[in-house]
Amino acid sequence: MATNDPEWTQELWSAARCAGVLLALLLLFDWGSDRLTLWRAVLWCALAGLLFVVVFPARVSAGGNWLATRRLVREHRVRTDLLVSIRCLDGISPRLLLRDSLGGRVELDPEVLVRHPQLWLRLEAGARKAAADGSLLCGVTALRHISRRVDGEAARAVLRASGLE
């Protein structure tokens, strides 16, 4: 049975709303200044479409021994029991890069794993098996860091639910 990111639909609607608001504002501004032409409207539609493509969220799902991310066109999948590396990529938005021995490569936001422990548990089980088999060459530290974040968030959720926060 596969586990999906349950907030993906909400993020998709947010991306569509952002693109729609930008389009509406651009068209309204042009119409108000009497400069709206067919070509400008097409240009604004293309610009709003480009914004939608850029902010389109990746759909993360996990199964028995796999983890996948799907964007607009392509799906990337790794076998978690055959992982060879797990790297944290720092930058404007932190990313987690997973590679398996079959050449699969997945890049995802580690916050998805923190927000959805079911996805994390699937990844952790496969990574633990890969580490035991000796195929996971680098990434144990990254796994420990994410594990601490997931555990901390779970503890905060328990405290919130019990009213102790």
Briefly summarize what is shown:
The chain is α+β, with helices and mostly antiparallel strands and 165 residues long.
Run of helices and strands: EHHEEEEEEHHH
- Rough outline: elongated
Counted by DSSP, the helix tally is 5
Low-confidence stretches: none
Helix proportion = 40-55%
Number of discrete domains: 2
Strand tally is: 7
The assigned structural class equals: alpha+beta
How large is the radius of gyration?
20 Å
Oligomer: single chain
Distance between the termini: 34 Å
Described by strand count, sense and barrel closure, the largest sheet is: 4 strands, antiparallel
Give the overall pLDDT as a whole number. 90
Beta-strand percentage range: 15-25%
Lateral arrangement of strands in the main beta sheet:
1-2-3-4
Please give a structural write-up.
- By secondary structure, the chain is α+β, with helices and mostly antiparallel strands.
- It folds into 2 domains: 3-55; 60-162, no CATH class.
- The protein is 54% helix and 20% strand.
- The protein is built from 5 helices and 7 strands, in the order E-H-H-E-E-E-E-E-E-H-H-H.
- It has helices spanning 8-32, 38-55, 110-115, 117-133, 140-162, and strands at residues 3-4, 59-62, 66-70, 75-79, 83-89, 95-100, 105-108.
- The strands form 2 sheets. A 4-stranded antiparallel sheet has the order 1-2-3-4, with helices on one face. It has a 3-stranded antiparallel sheet with strand order 5-6-7, covered by helices on one side.
- The chain is elongated, with a radius of gyration of 20 Å.
